[in-house]
Amino acid sequence: MHAVAHLAPSAIVLASALGAAIMCLLVLRYGFAPPAEAGGGAATRLLVTRLGHAAAGVCFAVAGILAVVLLVQQSRPAAGVAPPPRDPEIGRLRRDVDALAG
Predict the structure, then answer these.
(1) How far is Cα 80 from Cα 9, in angstroms, rounded to an integer?
(2) By C-alpha distance, which of 66, 58, 91, 52 is closest to 12?
(3) Would you give the DSSP letter of residue 79?
């Protein structure tokens, strides 16, 4: 299995947790209500909120991309591994052929 497939589950959890932590910090800092001030504080609040949402969106996008990579990697058959014979007769014949070749 590729190294990305081994690291992907941990990276998915970390990216999702970071995005969730950013969103929680924004809610704790600014709450759900729109800004009450109309001065310079509103512009700073809007900027921080937009940057926080963008950062959280990037974290969730990374988690989604890694999840897709993990699913694709797991759906591929392992290299060099032959599928098991479907019919017991085919397996017996292969063993006979291998015995004769050896």
Answers:
(1) 25
(2) 66
(3) T
Cα–Cα distances (Å) from 47 to 44, 55, 97, 100, in that order, read 5, 12, 72, 76
Q: Got the DSSP string for 22-33?
A: HHHHHHHHH-SS
CA 27 to chain centre: 25
| Model confidence, pTM | 0.66
Per DSSP, 36 falls in state -
- Helices 3-30 & 40-75 angle (0-180, nearest 10): 160
Run of H or E residues at 35:
none
What are the distances in angstroms from CA 68 to CA 3, 65, 71, 75? 15, 5, 5, 11
| pLDDT, tens only, 35-52 | 676 666 778 888 899 999
Percent of the chain with pLDDT over 70: 80
Q: How far apart are CA 71 and CA 14, in angstroms?
A: 18
Q: What tokens does 76 get?
A: 């591929």
